[in-house]
From TrEMBL:
PANTHER family: PHOSPHOLIPID-TRANSPORTING ATPASE IF, PROBABLE PHOSPHOLIPID-TRANSPORTING ATPASE. It catalyses: ATP + H2O + phospholipidSide 1 = ADP + phosphate + phospholipidSide 2. The active site is at D406. This is Phospholipid-transporting ATPase. It is a multi-pass membrane protein. ATP binds at D406, K407, T408, E523, F564, K587, R618, T698, G699, D700, R787, K793, N817, D818. Its EC number is 7.6.2.1. Residues 35-89 form the P-type ATPase N-terminal domain. Its cofactor is Mg(2+). Residues 840-1095 form the P-type ATPase C-terminal domain. One of its GO terms (biological process) is phospholipid translocation. It is found in: Endomembrane system; Membrane. It comes from Cyprinus carpio carpio. The chain crosses the membrane at residues 62-80, 287-310, 341-360, 856-877, 956-978, 990-1013, 1025-1049, 1055-1080.
Length: 1172
C-alpha cells in the first residue's frame, strides 16, 4: 500500500529515521528482532491497469469542461424531446473520446512494455552460497547482487567489492544527472577482499542507513563488519552508493548489497510529473469559449422567452392543427420552461464546436514534425536533429518576450582550453606547450626569463631552445604544477585494460591510448595542461597517486578527499609526500580560497584573477597547507568522527572542512578558456531586433560573465552597465537599487542599459525589494545574473513570469543545473551538449546549438502562431455562420420544437466533421505569410505577432461580427429569393422548408470555404485539393444522400431535395449572388488596408511578390517619408510606367521597426536601381 502512496508523492510513515539491512539477509537469531518491510524491486511508470483503464480514462477526459459540456448536451437530447437527433452530439463526442482513449491507452501500453522489460531483466544474485540468475523485480533489500561491465545497476547498491584489489569501480550517471564523466566509487577495506561468492556468503555485516530520499548526492550510513568476534564500523557516503540507472564502466564486475529497491530507489523518487504548461492561445481559446457559451445561453433564453410571449395568444398557443393533450395542459409551467430552454440549448449548441479540439490536437501533433524535419536545425558534426518533447506549445514559440539562457555549454562550447596562469605573483601564458612569462615569446633574447620544459611523448625531457633550459629558480612553480596535477578526481582509461592489472604499467612508456575522465571539463583541461608542461598524472592505484615530474616518477599516498560542494566552492586532497610529509592541496573559486590564505602573493594573484576574468577566462585559485604530525592526527580524528556520524553528518563535515582549509599558502591561479559557439552573437542580435530581451543566468564569477556577455554581443561596448553586486544587507541593497533607478531616469532616452547582479545580491533584492528590482530590470536592454544557484535561476524566471505584464518566457540550457529554470519557464529548450541529457529530457524542445534558436522562434514560432490563431478564429467564425441562421429561422416558425431545425440532422453532424474540416487543417499545417528567409533576415517581423496580437479581443470581435453578418446574408438572401410563394421551378412548383434550409446550407459551405481561401497566402497542391475538393464532396454527397432511398434511415426528408434545388437556375443565381455579396466587402477591405495601413509583414509580402521583376516595384511604392495617399498615387504611376528611380533608395519608412544594421534580402543593389 505504501508503495502506491509513495508513488503518488507521499512518504510512508517509516518506523524510524534509519533502516537496518542485513547483508545476504542473515537476520539475527535472537527473538527480539522485528523484520522491517521494504518495497519490492518493481518499477511502475504506467498510469492504468487493464481493470481501471476505462473508468479512470473516462473520468480524466470528462474533467475537461468541453467534453463534460457535450456529454450534458447528449444526455439532454436523450431525456427530452429535442429537434435534433442525439446522434448529432453523441457521434462527435464518441469520436473524440475514443480517439483520445486509444492514444492514451497506446502510450500507457508502451510504458507497461518498458516497465516489463526493466522488471524482467536478468540479474545475478548470491543466494545459498551460489550465484543465481533471477529477474530484476525479484531482488530484495539485503540481497548481494553481481553487476558486470557496461550493465546498469538494478537497485541502489552499497559497493562491497570489485575485481580490483582496492575495491573501487568506475561508473557513469548520465541517465540520472546528465553528467557523462567517469565517477569512482569505493568499498570499505573489510569487504573489498570478498571478491568471490564463497567469501561473500561468509561475510557477517550490517548496513545502517537513512530512509529513502530523492537527493541523488546525499547518502548517510555506516557498515558494521564482524571479523573474528570483533565489530569494525566504517562510514558510508555517496561515494559508496551505486545508484539504480547508473552504468558500470572500466570494471569487470562488482558485488553490492541492495539497500533501496523499486519505487524507493533514488531514481524512482526523482520521477517528477512536469507541470502542465498551457499556451497563450489555449488560454485565449478558453476565454472565447466562455463568451460563446454566453451567446449560446442568451440565444436559448431569448428563444424560450419569445416562444412563451408568442404563445400568450390562444390562437398560437393551441392552434387547431396541434391540439394539446390533458397531460400537456396540466403539466408544470416551470418544468415546461426548463424543457423548452434545454431543447433550444441543444439546437444551438453547435456554436461551440467539439471538432475544434480535435483539429487543434491534430494540428499540433502533425505540425511538430516540421521542426524535426528542418535540415537547418540539423547539426552535422554531432548528427543531431531538433526534437519536440511537447507539441502543445508550438505556437508559444511565436510569443516569446524574454529568453533566459545559461552560459557554459549553451552560449559556449563547454570545451575548455588552458590559456594562462599566475604562479607566485608572475603571470604566464601557454605557447606551444610551454609556460612563457607574460610579455615574453619563444624567441626571447638571451637573459630573458626562462620557460618551462615540455614533456615529450617519448618520455624524455626536450629542450626547445638552447637558451630555454629550465631550472627552477624556486620551488613555487614546481609545487603549483604538482598541486594542479594532484588536486582533482580525474580518472584514466586505458583501452586495453579490462581487469586487474598494474595501472602504472604505462608510466615508463607513455601510452597514447591513455585518456583522462573528469567530473568537470575544467579539471580535465588543467590535468592535460600540466601534462604538456612536464608534470604528468599517470594514474591512481588504491591510495597511491603517481605523477611524473619532467620524467621522474613520484608516488603520493591519498589520505583524504574533501569533496567539492556548491556552498564551499572548493575541493581539497590531503596527501602524504614520498618524504612522509602531509600536505593539503586546495583549488576553488577566488572568493572561496583567497580569504583563507595567509601567505603567498595574495594581492598580485587577485589582480591577475580579475585580469583573467576580464578576458572571459574561467578562473580557479590553487593553495596548499603543510601539516605537522600532531596537526594531521587532529585532522584525521575529526574527519573520522564526522564521517561516521549518522545524525547531522553534512553539518559536521562542513565544520571540519572549514577547520582544515584555513591558514593556506597561496600558490597561484589558472585561467581556462571556454570558446563561444558559432553564430551566438548574430543569434542574440536577431532576438534583440525581434523585440526579445535576453537574460544570461550563470554560475560563473562576475568578471568572467561580463567578459563573455561583451564578447557574445549580449552587452554592447556603448551600453551603460549598472551593477548590483556584493550587497551585504537589505538596506544597502535597497539604496543601491534606488541609485540605479535614479541613474536610469537621468540618462538619455537613447542610452541602452545593462544590469549585472550576483546571486547574493539577488537573494536580498527578492526578499524585500522585489518591485524596485523588477522596475530596474525592465528598463534594461540586457540583464546578466552571475554566481547563480540552480534554484535561483528558477526564481528569476518565476519572478518575470508572474509579473503584472505576464510576459511569455523561454529558458534554454544544457546541464542538470538548468532543469529547474527549463521547467519553470513557459517554454523550455534543452541543448544537446556535453553535460548529458537531463536538460533535454526535461525540456519541451531540444536543439543541438544555440544558433538554431533564431530559426526556431523567428520562423517556426511565427508560422505556428499565425496558423493556429487563424484556425481558432476561423472555427468560431464558421460556427457562427452555421448556427445563427438556425436562430433566425425560429422567428418564422413560432419557435416550434417540432419543425424548428433549419438543417437536416446529417448536415448538422457532418458540417464540422467532413464539409469544412480539411481545408482549415491543411491551412494550419502549411500556411506561410512570408518566406522563411525573409523572416530570418527581418527579425522585426516577429513583433507583428507579439503579445498574442492575432488573438486580441479586437480581432475576435471582427471575426465574430463577420460571422453574424454572413449568417444574416445567407438567411435573408435566401429568404428574399424565395419570398412569398415564389415559383422557382420551370414547372411552377414551389420550394419547401427543407429546400430553403439546403439552399442556406449550400451557400454557407461555399462561402466559409472560399473565405479561408482568401486568407491563404501560401498555396500548395494540398490546399487546392482540399479547398475545391471539400466543395465538390459536399455536392456529390448531397446528390447521393438525397437521390437514393436508404433503407436503414427512419425518415428521409431530404429525398430529391438537392436535385430539385440544383435544377433551378434561380437557385444557382442566388448562390452566386449571395457568395459574392458576402466576400466582396472583405476583399475590398483587404486591398485598402494593405495600401493605406500595411503592416511590416504585408510590406514584405508585397516586396517578395515582386522579387522576380526587373524593376523592384515595391521600392518605388514604399519610398521614404511618403503618406498612404501618395503610395496609391505612385501605384498608378507605376502602372503607367512612370516609376522614379530616385525613390528606390529605401524600402521602409522611418516609422517602421527595422534597423540599419539589419541584414536584409530587401536591399536594392545598384544594378536594380539603375534598371528601375
Amino acid at each position: 500500500m505504501w508503495l502506491k502512496v509513495r508513488y503518488l508523492g507521499f512518504d510512508p510513515p517509516h518506523q524510524s529515521d534509519t533502516r537496518t539491512v542485513y547483508i545476504a539477509n542473515k537476520f539475527p537469531q535472537h527473538g527480539h528482532y522485528i523484520p522491517q518491510r521494504f518495497a519490492d524491486n518493481r518499477i511502475i511508470s504506467s498510469k492504468y491497469t487493464i481493470w481501471n483503464f476505462i473508468p479512470k480514462n473516462l473520468f480524466e477526459q470528462f474533467r475537461r469542461i468541453a467534453n463534460f459540456y457535450f456529454l450534458i448536451i447528449f444526455l439532454v437530447q436523450l431525456m427530452i424531446d429535442t429537434p435534433t437527433s442525439p446522434i448529432t452530439s453523441g457521434l462527435p463526442l464518441f469520436f473524440v473520446i475514443t480517439v483520445t482513449a486509444i492514444k492514451q491507452g497506446y502510450e500507457d501500453w508502451l510504458r507497461h512494455k518498458a516497465d516489463n522489460e526493466v522488471n524482467g531483466a536478468p540479474v545475478f544474485v548470491v543466494r545459498s552460497g551460489s550465484l543465481v540468475q533471477t529477474r530484476s523485480k525479484n531482488i530484495r533489500v539485503g540481497d548481494i547482487v553481481r553487476v558486470a561491465k557496461d550493465e546498469t545497476f538494478p537497485a541502489d547498491l552499497v559497493l562491497l567489492s570489485s575485481d580490483r584489489a582496492e575495491g573501487t569501480c568506475h561508473i557513469t550517471t548520465t541517465s540520472l544527472d546528465g553528467e557523462t564523466n567517469l565517477k569512482t566509487h569505493y568499498s570499505v577495506p573489510e569487504t573489498a577482499v570478498s571478491q568471490s561468492v564463497s567469501r561473500l556468503e561468509s561475510l557477517q555485516a550490517v548496513v545502517e542507513c537513512q530512509q529513502p530520499e530523492a537527493d541523488l548526492y546525499r547518502f548517510v550510513g555506516r557498515i558494521t563488519v564482524t571479523q573474528q568476534g570483533e565489530e569494525i564500523v566504517r562510514p558510508l557516503g555517496p561515494e559508496n552508493l551505486l545508484l539504480r540507472g547508473a552504468r558500470l564502466k572500466n570494471t569487470k564486475e562488482i558485488f553490492g548489497v541492495a539497500v533501496y529497491t523499486g519505487m524507493e530507489s533514488k531514481m524512482a523518487l526523482n520521477y517528477k510529473c512536469k507541470s502542465q504548461k498551457r499556451s497563450a492561445v489555449e488560454k485565449s481559446m478558453n476565454t472565447f469559449l466562455i463568451i460563446y457559451l454566453g451567446i449560446l445561453l442568451f440565444e436559448a433564453i431569448l428563444s424560450t422567452i419569445l416562444k412563451y410571449a408568442w404563445q400568450a395568444e390562444n390562437k398560437w398557443d393551441e392552434p387547431f392543427y396541434n391540439q394539446k393533450t390533458d397531460q400537456e395542459r396540466n403539466s408544470s409551467q416551470i418544468l415546461k420552461f426548463i424543457s423548452d430552454f434545454l431543447a433550444f440549448l441543444v439546437l444551438y449548441n453547435f456554436i461551440i464546436p467539439i471538432s475544434l479540439y480535435v483539429t487543434v490536437e491534430m494540428q499540433k501533433f502533425l505540425g511538430s514534425f516540421f521542426i524535426g524535419w528542418d535540415l537547418d536545425l540539423y547539426h552535422e558534426e554531432s548528427d543531431q536533429k531538433a526534437q519536440v518533447n511537447t507539441s502543445d506549445l508550438n505556437e508559444e514559440l511565436g510569443q516569446v518576450e524574454y529568453v533566459f539562457t545559461d552560459k557554459t555549454g549553451t552560449l559556449t562550447e563547454n570545451e575548455m582550453q588552458f590559456r594562462e596562469c599566475s604562479i607566485n605573483g608572475i603571470k604566464y601564458q601557454e605557447i606551444n606547450g610551454k609556460l612563457i612569462p607574460e610579455g615574453m615569446t619563444e624567441d626571447s633574447p638571451d637573459g630573458a626569463v626562462p620557460c618551462l620544459v615540455r614533456f615529450s611523448s617519448a618520455g624524455e625531457d626536450s629542450v626547445y631552445k638552447s637558451k630555454c633550459v629550465y631550472t627552477f629558480q624556486n620551488k613555487e612553480e614546481e609545487l603549483f604544477l604538482k598541486a594542479v596535477s594532484l588536486c582533482h578526481t580525474v580518472q584514466i582509461s586505458y583501452d586495453q585494460v579490462d581487469g586487474p592489472g598494474d595501472p602504472f604499467s604505462h608510466a615508463n612508456g607513455f601510452s597514447p591510448q591513455m585518456e583522462y575522465y573528469a567530473s568537470s571539463p575544467d579539471e580535465k583541461a588543467l590535468v592535460e595542461a600540466t601534462k604538456r608542461m612536464g608534470v604528468t598524472f599517470i594514474g591512481s592505484h588504491g591510495e597511491i597517486m603517481e605523477i611524473k615530474t619532467f620524467g621522474k616518477a613520484e608516488k603520493y599516498k591519498l589520505l583524504h578527499v574533501l569533496e567539492f560542494d556548491a556552498d564551499r566552492r572548493r575541493m581539497s586532497v590531503i596527501l602524504q609526500k614520498p618524504s612522509g610529509e602531509k600536505v593539503l592541496f586546495t583549488k576553488g573559486a577566488e572568493s572561496a580560497v583567497l580569504p583563507y590564505s595567509t601567505s603567498g602573493e595574495i594581492d598580485k594573484t587577485r589582480v591577475h584573477v580579475d585580469e583573467f576574468a576580464l578576458k572571459g577566462l574561467r578562473t580557479l585559485v590553487v593553495a596548499c597547507r603543510h601539516f605537522s604530525a600532531d596537526e594531521y592526527q587532529e585532522v584525521d580524528r575529526r574527519l573520522h568522527e564526522a564521517r561516521t556520524a549518522l545524525q547531522q553528518r553534512e553539518e559536521r563535515l562542513v565544520e571540519v572542512f572549514n577547520f582544515i582549509e584555513k591558514d593556506l599558502e597561496l600558490l597561484g591561479a589558472t585561467g581556462v578558456e571556454d570558446k563561444l559557439q558559432d553564430k551566438v552573437q548574430e543569434t542574440i542580435e536577431s532576438l534583440r531586433l525581434a523585440g526579445i530581451k535576453v537574460w544570461v543566468l550563470t554560475g560563473d564569477k562576475h568578471e568572467t560573465a561580463v567578459s563573455v556577455s561583451l564578447s557574445c554581443g549580449h552587452f554592447h561596448r556603448t551600453m551603460n552597465i549598472l551593477e548590483l553586486v556584493k550587497q551585504k544587507s537589505d538596506s544597502e541593497c535597497a539604496e543601491q537599487l534606488r541609485r540605479l533607478a535614479r541613474r536610469y531616469n537621468t540618462s538619455s532616452h537613447f542610452t541602452q542599459h545593462g544590469l549585472v547582479v550576483d546571486g547574493a545580491s539577488l537573494s536580498l533584492a527578492l526578499r524585500e525589494h522585489e518591485k524596485l528590482f523588477m522596475e530596474v530590470c525592465k528598463n534594461c536592454s540586457a540583464v546578466l545574473c552571475c554566481r547563480m544557484a540552480p534554484l535561483q535561476k528558477a526564481k528569476v524566471v518565476r519572478l518575470l513570469k508572474t509579473s503584472p505584464e505576464k510576459p511569455i518566457t523561454l529558458a534554454i540550457g544544457d546541464g542538470a543545473n538548468d532543469v529547474s529554470m527549463i521547467q519553470e519557464a513557459h517554454v523550455g529548450i534543452g541543448i544537446m551538449g556535453k553535460e548529458g541529457r537531463q536538460a533535454v529530457r526535461n525540456s519541451d524542445y531540444a536543439i543541438a546549438r544555440f544558433k538554431f534558436l533564431a530559426k526556431l522562434l523567428l520562423v517556426h514560432g511565427h508560422f505556428y502562431y499565425i496558423r493556429i490563431a487563424t484556425l481558432v478564429q476561423y472555427f468560431f467564425y464558421k460556427n457562427v455562420c452555421f448556427i445563427t441562421p438556425q436562430f433566425l429561422y425560429q422567428f418564422f416558425c413560432l419557435f416550434s420544437q417540432q419543425v424548428s431545425t433549419l438543417y437536416d440532422s446529417v448536415y448538422l453532424t457532418l458540417y464540422n466533421i467532413c464539409f469544412t474540416s480539411l481545408p482549415i487543417l491543411v491551412y494550419s499545417l502549411f500556411e506561410q505569410l512570408v518566406h522563411p528567409h525573409v523572416l530570418q533576415s527581418k527579425p522585426a517581423l516577429y513583433r507583428d505577432i507579439s503579445k498574442n496580437s492575432l488573438l486580441s479581443f479586437k480581432t475576435f470581435l471582427y471575426w465574430t461580427f463577420l460571422g453574424f453578418c454572413h449568417a444574416f446574408i445567407f438567411f435573408f438572401g435566401s429568404y428574399t429569393l424565395m419570398g412569398e410563394d415564389t415559383t422557382l421551378m420551370g414547372n411552377g412548383q414551389m420550394f419547401g422548408n427543407w429546400t430553403f434550409g439546403t439552399l442556406v446550407f449550400t451557400v454557407m459551405v461555399i462561402t466559409v470555404t472560399l473565405k479561408l481561401a482568401l486568407e491563404t497566402h501560401f498555396w500548395t497542391w494540398m490546399n487546392h485539393f482540399v479547398t475545391w475538393g471539400s466543395i465538390a464532396f459536399y455536392f456529390i454527397f448531397s446528390l447521393f444522400y438525397g437521390g437514393i432511398i436508404w433503407p436503414f434511415l427512419h425518415t428521409q426528408d431530404m429525398y430529391f431535395i438537392f436535385v430539385q434545388l440544383l435544377s433551378s437556375g434561380s437557385a444557382w443565381f442566388a448562390i452566386f449572388i449571395i457568395v459574392i455579396t458576402c466576400l466582396f466587402p472583405d476583399v475590398i477591405k483587404k486591398v485598402f488596408y494593405r495600401h493605406l495601413q500595411p503592416t511590416s509583414t504585408q510590406k514584405s509580402q508585397f516586396i517578395e511578390a515582386y522579387q522576380g521583376i526587373g524593376c523592384v516595384d515595391s521600392m518605388c511604392c514604399f519610398s521614404e517619408g511618403q503618406n498612404a495617399c501618395s503610395r496609391l498615387g505612385r501605384l498608378v504611376e507605376r502602372m503607367m510606367g512612370r516609376c522614379d528611380p530616385a525613390r528606390a533608395t529605401r524600402s521602409w519608412s522611418d516609422s517602421d521597426t527595422f534597423f540599419s544594421n539589419d541584414r536584409s534580402i530587401l536591399t536594392l543593389s545598384p544594378m536594380e536601381v539603375s534598371h528601375c
